[in-house]
Each structure stands twice: as C-alpha cells, then as structure tokens.
Description:
Blueprint: E1 8-10, E2 21-25, E3 30-34, E4 43-45, H1 47-59
Antiparallel strand pairs: 1-2, 2-3, 3-4
Amino acid sequence: MNFGSAVWHKSSFSDHNGSCVEVALTAMAVGIRDSKDIGVGPLVVAPDGWAALVAVLKRGR
C-alpha cells in the first residue's frame, strides 16, 4: 500500500521530545508509523481492525 500522498496525523498523546506516533487514514487501509522512522514503511491495518483497536483503548482509559 502506498501512503506517499496520505495525510499523517500525530497522536495527541505523543510527547514533545520527538517520540511521536502518526496515523494516516485511507479508504482501504490505515498506516501507523513512528515519526522518527519515516523512511521505514508503516504498519498497515484494515480500517475495521483500527476501529476495533481504538475502541479497546478507549474502554481502558
């Protein structure tokens, strides 16, 4: 999956020292990457898998 033109969003929980998790949403997939490793391909998951992960994390707050 090519995320070359994707818009990446930084997690609001990322700290200010450069340790950031970024997510890009497309119709077909969700890309997750470490902002320090932009040259490395992102972890790619299906949108429904991403939604399930976010739901579990929100319940754990």
